User: Fold this.
Amino acid sequence: MSEDIKKFMYVNRRAPYGTIYAWEALEVVLIGAAFDQDVSLAFLDDGVFQLMKGEDTGDVEMKNFSPTYSALGDYDVTKLYVEKESLEERGLTVEDLMPLKYEDEDDDWAEKDSIRLVSRKEMAELMDEQDVLFSF
Assistant:
């Protein structure tokens, strides 16, 4: 990776609805990716709920923005790290999450998973490797 390209990680710790944080984080990620930043997302604590499949926002009267996550691969945002312990603490598994994929142009456009399940220790190491962390 070129020295002039910085690594940006967007850390999502909050539930998707009830505040504007999750939606704003997603908007900022898309903007950063449009400017060719090396972008990754981290989902921990209640942030893991942002990736739940089958969201229904009718009761909270907010627009369901979760389908936007499926467009991340089109912006070369292919590293979505989900903390395993946060899922487990909330009674969830990776099967409860949206099946987010991207096409790997370096592998004959093979479809690959964007979600990477990592331990709390691995998440801390990934965060330490970043040049910039944004927390939402």
Remarks:
- Residues 21-34 form the longest helix (14 residues).
- The chain has a mean pLDDT of 90.
